[in-house]
Specification:
The structure holds 2 protein chains of 2 kinds.
Chain A lengths: L1 H21 L3 H21 L3 H26 L16 H20 L12 H8 L4 H28 L1
Chain B lengths: L1 H34 L15 H11 L10 H18 L18 H22 L3 H32 L4 H6 L5 H4 L1 H14 L11 H4 L9 H25 L11 H22 L5 H32 L1
The chains are: A mainly alpha, B mainly alpha.
């Protein structure tokens, strides 16, 4: 039962990921990416990582993809034309890579045929203890990186003010 | 059998919530009427309560069509997404200690925040897919507003999580011997303001400001598709109100009456405050809205988290 759910989610992730390559409208691409990320978060949930699943939706779907959409929205050139999706030149390289990846995965799974899913749930408490325990220095390093980014944004903003 | 009962229960919960949302539309019109010294809809049924039903029938009997210039798939999907995300959030909301679908879920609060991001998608996909300038402007405004106010809201919630040590709504209510409005007054105010902005209710209804943008993101919607947006808005309002009651006002704790009645009373009081705000405050300019979010609420929310963490640490030391 569980394995079917997981396979279904993987199918959704793969189809939406592939659709991302062929759709013509950037907004449709973004929506496909969103569906893919949502399916991924459900996959995390099913595999016993509810905290990561929630963060996936909040951060990736709720914040990062929104930035893409924001740019796409302001770029919609014509409000009336609708075009059919077509196969684009840029499609072929990713397609080749995808076929290769599929081949690798098939090889991998043919060696280990035990598709038994063992799920051990890892709750938010465990994640927090890991982040602020053994991985404290890494967490602090990321915080420092983010601080640098904020400082850079402020600096860029100030220069714009000065120019104006 | 168990699955069947669960499905039946879910259907029942959904119907009750839809009924609540429909009734709130009527209640808002009536309360606004009284606040503006007029009567409001009072003809249909006792006290005019049948107006909710009449509104629903009107919306359902209107023609559903997709405009020629709209993106057909996304245009259809957006209203459903709005109503779905608002409804799904209620799964983690407990009515009482033993009465909820997933009140004990250890990521309950995160689930609600995640669903609110999905809600934002419904709003701006609807605005974008309509293929109308006003809708697009409304959608762009909605995105910026929702992203800007989700941050202070999350940080305000962090104060509550720090104090209670739990992300499940049951755990947070159980930890409140004293309602958190006493320990987190600043967090409460930030959460309420951000909540008004998240549900884009007046005075923060700039995504659909009718005096500038016709109706903003739902300009091109009619009939039941508009109804879904409407339901989503009122369900979101109910959700923010019930969250305020659970997180800051002590949830179902209260003397004499059974717990769930206390929760309903508190929720209704918060909803009344929302109506009151609508009748009282004018709409700010868009840059004022952004400045309030990023320059006032966000630093205050960060300060709130810092102060809460320090106080909690000192409390533990003492």
């Amino acid at each position: 039962m569980m394995i079917f759910l997981i396979l279904l989610l993987l199918l959704i992730i793969l189809t939406t990921g592939a659709a991302l390559l062929v759709v013509r409208d950037p907004m449709h691409g973004a929506v496909n990416l969103g569906v893919s990320l949502l399916a991924l978060s459900i996959l995390f949930l099913v595999l016993g990582a509810p905290f990561v699943a929630a963060l996936e939706v909040m951060l990736y779907v709720g914040a990062i993809l929104v930035l893409f959409l924001f740019a796409i929205m302001l770029l919609r050139t014509s409000l009336t034309t609708r075009e059919e999706p077509r196969w684009r030149r840029g499609f072929w390289w990713p397609a080749v890579l995808m076929v290769l990846l599929t081949a690798v995965l098939i090889l991998l799974f043919s060696r280990r045929p035990d598709l038994l899913v063992v799920i051990q749930e890892i709750g938010p408490g465990t994640v927090g203890r890991a982040l602020f325990g053994p991985y404290l220095w890494l967490t602090e390093a990321v915080a420092l990186l983010l601080f640098a980014v904020i400082a850079a944004v402020l600096a860029i903003h100030r220069r714009d003010d000065h120019d104006a | 059998m168990r699955l069947f009962l669960m499905a039946l229960g879910m259907l029942f919960t959904t119907l009750v919530l839809l009924g609540v949302a429909g009734f709130l539309v009527f209640a808002e019109r009536r309360v606004l009427g009284f606040l503006q010294n007029r009567l409001g809809p009072n003809r249909l049924g006792p006290l005019g309560i049948g107006q909710a039903l009449a509104d629903a029938l009107k919306l359902m009997s209107k023609e559903n069509f997709v405009p020629d210039f709209a993106d057909p798939v996304l245009y259809r999907a957006a209203p459903v997404l709005v109503a779905f995300s608002a409804l799904a959030s209620f799964a983690v909301v407990p009515l009482d200690h033993h009465f909820s679908w997933a009140g004990n879920w250890n990521i309950g609060l995160l689930f609600i925040l995640a669903m609110s991001s999905l809600n934002a998608y419904g709003v701006f996909l609807g605005g974008w897919a309509s293929g109308n300038k006003f809708s697009l402007l409304g959608a762009v405004r909605a995105v910026a507003q929702l992203v800007s106010y989700e941050l202070p809201m999350g940080l305000a919630l962090l104060g509550v999580v720090l104090l209670s040590g739990s992300l499940s709504l049951n755990g947070i209510v159980a930890a409140q011997n004293l309602p958190y409005i006493v320990l987190q007054p600043l967090g409460f105010v930030i959460f309420l303001i951000a909540g008004v902005a998240e549900t884009h209710r007046l005075p923060f209804d700039l995504p659909e400001a009718e005096s500038e943008l016709v109706a903003g993101f739902n300009t091109e919607y009619g009939g039941m598709r508009f109804g879904y947006f409407f339901l989503g808005e009122y369900l979101g309002l109910t959700l923010i109100a019930v969250l305020t009651a659970l997180l800051y006002l002590g949830g179902w704790h209260g003397p004499w009456l059974p717990g769930w009645i206390w929760l309903l009373i508190k929720t209704a009081a918060v909803i009344f405050v929302f109506f009151w705000l609508r009748a009282t405050l004018p709409r700010p300019r868009y840059d004022q809205l952004m400045a309030l979010g990023w320059k006032v609420l966000l630093p205050l929310a960060l300060f709130n988290v810092l102060a809460t963490a320090l106080a909690a640490a000192l409390w533990r030391l003492a």
